[in-house]
Amino acid sequence: MLARPGLPEFEYHQAHSPQAVFDLMAEKGADLKILMGGTDLFVQMRDRSTGSGTLLDIKGLPGIKEIIFNAAKGLKIGAAASLNSLSSHPDLSTHYPILSQAADTVGNYQLRNRATLGGNICNASPSADLAPALLVYQGSVILDSPRGERELPLDEFWLGPGKTALTPNEYLKAIHFPLPPDGAVGRYLKLGRSKMGDLAVVGVAVLGYPDPDVPAGTSFRIGINSTAPTAYRIPAVETALAQNQISDEALYKAAESAMDISAPIEDQRATAEYQKKMVRNLVYKGLKDIWETLK
Ligand SMILES: Cc1cc2nc3c(=O)[nH]c(=O)nc-3n(C[C@H](O)[C@H](O)[C@H](O)COP(=O)(O)OP(=O)(O)OC[C@H]3O[C@@H](n4cnc5c(N)ncnc54)[C@H](O)[C@@H]3O)c2cc1C
After folding, report:
1. pLDDT band at 60 (very low <50, low <70, confident <90, very high)
2. How far is it, in rounded angstroms, from Cα 191 to Cα 227?
3. pTM metric for this prediction
C-alpha cells in the first residue's frame, strides 16, 4: 500500500439551517464529521487517522462567518470565520490584537483562506496557534444542539489532544469574548522550526493591563501551547506577578516558574528539555515587552 494512499470515499453534504445539521447528525451518528476548511480533516482522512464516511459542510449556516464587535458586550466570531478574516479585521487589530497576530502565524496565506477559527478549536491540537490567545481573552465556545445553545469556557472545552467536550449531536456555532480590560496590550510569540508556516514548538500569548486593584499595579495573563495535552494558562504565576512589585528579576522568576510548570513530551519537532527552556525564554520576552509598553 502507498504511504499516502489518497482520500477514502466519502459523502459530501451541505447544511443551510441548524435543523438540517441536527437531522443529518441523527441519521449518520458517529460516521458524520463537520467540515470547515478541511485543512486538518482531509490530512487526517488521508492518513486514515479519522474514519469518516460523511462530511457535513456547515459554512453556509446563517451568520457562521460573521465577526461582530459590540462595545458593551464584547466580540462574537462565527465558527467558520477564516483565519485571514481574523488577521485583517479592524476590530480585532484594535481590541483583540493577539487573535490577529496568532492567526497570521498559521501555515501560509492560501491555507489561512480555507482554515477557520472553529476548525482550529475543534481539532483540539495542543499546538493550535489560536489557543493561547483564546485563553488570555477568556474566550468561550457557543455550542448548538437540538437541546438549544450552551456556552462553555475554552479551558473546559479542550479535554486532551483531539478531545473536546462536544457531545455527539452538537456543533460549534461561535466563540464569544468579553471586553478586554482597559489599556490592555498583548503579544503572541511563536517558535517553530522555520518561519515558513511550521507548527508551534512553543507559542506564548501575554496580555498585560493596568490594574489598580493589585499591589503590582499591573496584571498579566499568560497562555501557552504545545507543552501539555491542551493549551493552558498559568494562574499561580499570574497571581504571584500581580502580588509583588514588577522588576526585571520578578519577570524572569515568573518565566522560570512557567518553565517548571510546563510538561512537554519529546516529539519529532523538539526535545522536551528544549521546549521547557523555550517556554521560559518566550514568557520572559513576552512579559518584558508588554511591561516596557505599559510603563
Ligand atoms: C500545511 C499546513 C500547515 C498548518 N499550519 C498550522 C499552524 O501553523 N498552526 C496551527 O495552529 N495549525 C496549522 N495547521 C492546522 C490547520 O490548518 C488549523 O488547525 C485550521 O485552523 C483548521 O481549520 P479548518 O477549518 O481547516 O478545520 P477542519 O479541518 O475543517 O476541521 C478540523 C476538525 O474540527 C472539526 N470541526 C470543525 N468545525 C467544527 C464545528 N463548527 N463544530 C464541530 N466540529 C468542528 C472537524 O470535524 C475536524 O475534526 C496546518 C495545516 C496544514 C495542512
Report:
1. very high
2. 12
3. 0.96
pLDDT of residue 2: 55
Per residue in 112-134, pLDDT (tens digit) is 999 999 999 999 999 999 999 99
List the beta bridge partners of residue 149. 144
Instruction: Catalogue the long-range contacts made by 188-197 (C-beta closer than 8 Å, 24 or more residues apart).
Output: 188/98, 188/101, 188/102, 188/105, 188/129, 188/132, 188/133, 189/282, 189/285, 189/286, 190/102, 190/105, 190/129, 191/278, 191/282, 192/105, 193/269, 193/270, 196/108, 197/106, 197/107, 197/108, 197/111
Mutate to test the pocket of ligand 1, among 22, 32, 122 (most ligand atoms within 8 A of CB): 122
Using the 8-state DSSP alphabet, how is residue 88 labeled? T
Instruction: Report d(CA 230, CA 228) in Å as an integer.
Output: 5
Please compute Rg for the chain using Cα positions: 20
Residues whose CB is less than 8 angstroms from the CB of residue 91 and which lie 6 or more positions away in sequence, other chains included: 67, 69, 75
71: Cα separation from own chain's centroid: 23
Pocket test for ligand 1, best of 32, 34, 142 (most atoms within 8 A of CB): 34
Ligand 1 site residues (CB inside 6 A) read 33-41, 43, 79, 106-107, 111, 114-116, 118-120, 122-123, 128-129, 166, 171-172, 197, 199
**Shortest-distance atom of ligand 1 to CA 128:** 11
pLDDT per residue as tens digits for the range 201-256: 999 999 999 999 999 999 999 999 999 999 999 999 999 999 999 999 999 999 99
> What DSSP designation does 74 have?
E
Residue 249 cell numbers, joined: 528579576
